[in-house]
From TrEMBL:
<feature type="transmembrane region" description="Helical">
    <location>
        <begin position="144"/>
        <end position="169"/>
    </location>
</feature>
<keyword id="KW-0337">GPI-anchor biosynthesis</keyword>
<comment type="similarity">
    <text>Belongs to the PIGU family.</text>
</comment>
<comment type="pathway">
    <text>Glycolipid biosynthesis; glycosylphosphatidylinositol-anchor biosynthesis.</text>
</comment>
<feature type="transmembrane region" description="Helical">
    <location>
        <begin position="368"/>
        <end position="393"/>
    </location>
</feature>
<feature type="transmembrane region" description="Helical">
    <location>
        <begin position="79"/>
        <end position="101"/>
    </location>
</feature>
<keyword id="KW-0812">Transmembrane</keyword>
<dbReference type="InterPro" id="IPR009600">
    <property type="entry name" value="PIG-U"/>
</dbReference>
<feature type="transmembrane region" description="Helical">
    <location>
        <begin position="212"/>
        <end position="230"/>
    </location>
</feature>
<feature type="transmembrane region" description="Helical">
    <location>
        <begin position="271"/>
        <end position="291"/>
    </location>
</feature>
<keyword id="KW-0256">Endoplasmic reticulum</keyword>
<feature type="transmembrane region" description="Helical">
    <location>
        <begin position="175"/>
        <end position="200"/>
    </location>
</feature>
<keyword id="KW-0472">Membrane</keyword>
<feature type="transmembrane region" description="Helical">
    <location>
        <begin position="297"/>
        <end position="322"/>
    </location>
</feature>
<dbReference type="GO" id="GO:0006506">
    <property type="term" value="P:GPI anchor biosynthetic process"/>
</dbReference>
<dbReference type="GO" id="GO:0042765">
    <property type="term" value="C:GPI-anchor transamidase complex"/>
</dbReference>
<keyword id="KW-1133">Transmembrane helix</keyword>
């Protein structure tokens, strides 16, 4: 009877997935038709390196024979300029392409869920399918994903590459993990911290040497290729990587940099710039040592750190790791701040545009209004990170000591 019920559920899943995919595509098309003017102005979605509007301006400069990197307009790599050069005159084709990117990303995340859960060996086949479908739904129906696709945010492309990287990572493909890692680092410096997860995942000396070698060769090749596309000039480095480190553009976003550096005195700026940029590196060693037996959770924690401590984050940066959250269902009973995290993230999505309207448009508020919303967003992510770490350590203690009465766990954790 149970097998028959599982067969019926399995046969109905493709139809349900097709229905969800159709609904998600429909929502993106509606957002593109009716909400694009509003969404393109949202600082929660648009930052200098993922803005499609800036990319279009750079392509027009390129067509006019002007270097896109002469001013302060373009902050993406030359390869993206050339990839989209032939497409910007066909908005319908662009829409189809970005819709396809999102659908493919959701399917890749579904594959990640299946491979990871099978590797863990904790779940039944039915439960694996259920969680994998939930992961796909979490990505496709996320309002931030819908909005990012509607405005052709370059974060959609980055999320696709990130999903491919995670799939190669959980499958244990050293070569493809190294290649995709290099592509991510080339697009934005911050994914360089993923090297810690790679060195934990591929733990033998030979594997680590191969990972570093492949990644270095690929990264150098991509840098030289971008230089070739930029008329054999390194000028793009100042507008991309150095721009991320210098934080020259203080346009508000969902990060923590802009508000602080608006307030700080110029003669202290360099010092605090180093403090803020190094902050993300401080956690690498302790996290790597603590999670040395769980490379996937380490990678997940690093994705959260990037979303919090990057100089120009957008809400789209959190899409991948939030979609993969159902994979930690076994830690759910140890979460302490789940309601607060969920409520804070939802409240930020709703309140950030309201606070922006009060500050910039009506003038009935000030920068503190908007920063309060973005700070809530960052704090919620930190709470999620600590909850996952706490849950993992507690589960490890329970399983390691064979504890039946979990009321004893708290005492043991403090010893």
């Amino acid at each position: 009877m149970a097998n028959r019920q599982y067969t019926i559920l399995s046969s109905s899943r493709p139809a349900n997935r097709l229905l969800i995919c159709t609904l998600a595509v429909f929502l993106r098309v509606l957002a593109y038709i009716y909400c694009i003017d509003f969404l393109k102005k949202r600082p929660e979605l648009n930052v200098p390196q993922n803005s499609f509007r800036r990319l279009i301006d750079g392509i027009h400069m390129l067509r006019d024979g002007v270097s896109p990197y002469d001013g302060d307009m373009i902050h993406c790599q030359p390869v993206l300029l050339y990839v989209f050069t032939a497409l910007i005159d066909y908005p319908n084709l662009l829409l189809i392409m970005f819709l396809s990117f999102d659908v493919v990303t959701s399917e890749i995340l579904r594959m990640v869920a299946i491979v990871h859960l099978k590797n863990q060996g904790r779940s039944s086949a039915e439960n694996i399918e259920r969680i994998a479908d939930l992961v796909s739904k979490c990505y496709m129906l996320n309002p931030v994903a819908v909005a990012s696709c509607a405005i052709f945010s370059l974060s959609v492309v980055c999320n696709l590459i990130t999903a491919l990287f995670i799939l190669a990572f959980v499958k244990g493909s050293l070569l493809f993990s190294s290649i995709l890692f290099s592509v991510l680092v080339q697009l934005s410096l911050y994914p360089a911290v993923y090297i810690c997860a790679l060195l934990v995942r591929f733990s033998t000396t030979k594997e680590r040497m191969l990972t570093i070698t492949f990644s270095t060769i690929m990264l150098i090749g991509l840098l030289l290729f971008n230089r070739f596309l930029n008329e054999n000039s390194w000028s793009y480095v100042d507008s991309t990587y150095k721009f991320l480190l210098d934080v020259r553009d203080l346009t508000p976003n969902v990060g923590i940099f802009w508000y602080f550096f608006i307030e700080v005195f110029n003669h202290f700026r360099r010092f605090f710039l180093w403090v803020f940029q190094i902050n993300i590196l401080v956690y690498l060693v302790p996290l790597s040592l603590t999670l040395r037996s769980n490379a996937f959770l380490l990678l997940y924690q690093l994705m959260i750190l990037i979303s919090v401590f990057a100089s120009y984050p957008s809400m789209a940066d959190s899409l991948i790791y939030l979609s993969l959250l159902p994979l930690f269902e076994h830690l759910k009973k140890y979460f302490r701040w789940g309601l607060i995290v969920g409520g804070a993230l939802s409240a930020t999505i709703v309140l950030a545009p309201v606070m922006w309207q009060m500050w910039i448009v009506t003038g009935s508020g000030n920068a503190n209004f908007y920063f309060a919303a973005t700070l809530t967003y960052s704090v919620a992510q930190i709470f999620l990170l600590t909850d996952l770490l706490y849950g993992y350590l507690r589960l490890k203690l329970v399983e390691g000591r064979g504890i039946i009465d979990e009321s004893e766990v708290a005492l043991l954790m403090f010893k």
